[in-house]
Amino acid sequence: MEVQIPFSFLVFLLALFYLFTKLRTSFFPHPNHNLPPQPWKLPLLGHLHHLAGSLPNRALGNLADKLGPIIHLQLGEINTVVISSPDLAKEIMKTNDATFATRPKLLAAEILAYNYKDIAFSPYGDYWRQMRKICVLELLSAKKVESFESIREQESWNVVEHMLKKGPQPINLSEMISTMINVIVFTVSIGSGCKDQATFLELTEEIISLSSGFDVADLFPSLTPLHLVAGTRKTLLKIHHKMDKILDRIISDRQECRASGQTTDYNDLLEVLLRLKDDDGLRFPLNYDNIKAVLSDMFAAGTDTSSVTIEWTMFELMKNPKTMNKVQAELRHVLQGKKKIYESDIKELTYFKLVIKETLRLHSPLPLLLPRECQKNCDIGGYDIPANTKVIINYWKIGRDPKYWDDPESFIPERFNQSLFDFKGTSFEYIPFGAGRRICPGLNLGLANVEISLARLLYHFNWELPNGAKIEDLDGTESFGATLKLKNNLFLVPRAYNNTN
Ligand code: HEM
Known about the structure:
Layout: H1 7-22, H2 44-51, H3 56-67, E1 70-75, E2 78-83, H4 86-95, H5 107-112, H6 126-140, H7 142-147, H8 149-166, E3 171-172, H9 173-190, H10 197-210, H11 216-219, H12 224-230, H13 232-260, H14 269-277, H15 288-319, H16 321-335, H17 343-346, H18 351-362, E4 372-373, E5 378-380, E6 383-385, E7 390-393, H19 395-398, H20 443-460, E8 461-464, E9 478-480, E10 484-486, E11 491-496
Parallel strand pairs: 2-7
Antiparallel strand pairs: 1-2, 3-11, 4-7, 5-6, 8-11, 9-10
Helix pairs in contact: 8-9, 8-20, 9-15, 10-13, 15-18, 15-20
Protoporphyrin IX containing FE (HEM) binds at residues 119-120, 132, 185, 297-298, 301-302, 305-306, 309, 365-366, 369-370, 432-435, 438-442, 445-446, 450.
C-alpha cells in the first residue's frame, strides 16, 4: 500500500527539525553587576507555550509576576526582552531612547506598508524623520488639529442625529463609533470620506488580527516554507492588493479633480504629499508607494486607537453607574441646558477628562505599545541586551501594577485628581501614547476625536443595556490584534436626554 504524506506535513517536520537544531538557552552575562541570575534561561520552545491560547499582554504579565520586570524570551527565532516596570521602561524610552528608537521587522509592515515606507514601522533614520515631520506639520500638530474642529463636530453630530431619529432601540455602538472616527480620519487626511470605506474597515479588521507580531511568520522569519503553510503571507498579499486599489483610487480621484479644475484649493495631507512628489528638494524623493504607505498609516493608526478608547470608556461607564452619573452630571451642569455641546465646552470639564485618562490606563488600545529594537549592545537594569533584540514594553502590566496603582483593576477616574500624569510620556507609570522619539505623533488628533465624540454620546443620551440585560452580563472579553478591543461588539440603547430640564 502506498502512503501519501502531505507536503504541508513534510514542511512541518522540517520546521521542527530546524527548531531543535537551534534549540539553545540564551545568556546575557554581565560581569559588572552583582545581580542574581535571571530565571529567563528557559528552552526555546518553552516560551511559545506560555503565549499560546492567551492574550499576549496577559500571558507576558503573568510571566512578569513569576520572573520579574525584565524577561528574556526566545520567541521562535526572535530574541525578545519584555519590560514590565516604569523604571526599566524609562531606561529604554528615555535614558537609551536613541538606541531603542528603531522597530523590529514585521511581515505585515513589509507587505502592507510598501516595504516599511510608512512611519510606524519605518526603521529609525532620516526617512522616518522626514515623513513624520511632514505628517505632524500637515495633519497632526495642535494647530492643524484645531483647524479640523468643524469636521469632528459635523461627523459626531451626524451620529447623534441618527440615534435621535431611530429612538431608543439597541444599536451596535462599536460599529457606529468606528465608522464615525474613520470618516473623520479620512476627511482630515484626504478632504472627504472614502467611497470604499466599508471595504477599508473590513480589511483593517483583518490586518489588525494579523499584526500582533506573534504570528508564526514573525516568530520564524527565515522559515519561509512555514509561512506558506501558515498562509499568512498569502493572506497579507491579498489584503495588500485590495488596499492598494483603494489607495490608487483615492489618488486618481484627486488627480482627476485637479485636472478638471473643479477645485484648486485642496489643503489636506494628500495634496501636500502629491505636491511634494514633484518637489526635488526633498532628501528622500516621494513616489506613489511612499504616499500610499503614509496615508494608510494615518487611516489605520488613527481609526482603531480612538474608536477603541471610546468603546472601552462606554463599557466601563455602563459597568460603573455611579461614575456614569457623575460624569453626565458634570457635563449637564457645565452645559446648563445648551442644545449642543461644542469643543469649547470641553475645556470646562474636569471629571470627564479624568474618565478618559482612567480608560487609557486600564484599556490602552496598544497594550504593548509598538515594539522597539535595540540598535547596539546596551545595559538595561544591569543586564546586557545584545544588538537586534526586540523589546516589548508591557504597558498593560505597568498600568495595573499594585506597586503604583491602588485597587488597580477598578475603574476609578478620581485617582488622577491630584496627579501630574499627562499624555506626553514624562511619567513612565502612565504611557498610553508611548514615550521618547517614537511617541505617538497622533496624540492631539486622537484625543480631540475621542473627546468630542464621547462628550456628545454622554451629554445627549442616557444609556441602557438592551433586552433587560444586567451589568453582570456586560462581556469585557478582550481580543488582541494590533489593538486591544472588546471581543464582542458593544450593543446599547440610547435614550435621548431632554436638555431643557
Ligand atoms: C487614543 C488614540 C491613540 C493612542 C492611544 C495611540 C497610541 C500610540 C502608541 C502607544 C504608539 C507607540 C508609541 C511608542 O512606540 O512609544 C503610537 C504610535 C503611532 N501613532 Fe498613535 N495612538 C492614538 C492615535 C493616533 C492617531 C489619531 C494617529 C494618526 C492619525 C496616530 C498615529 C501614530 C503613528 C504614525 C505612530 C508611529 C510613530 C512612530 O513610530 O514614529 N495615532 N500610537
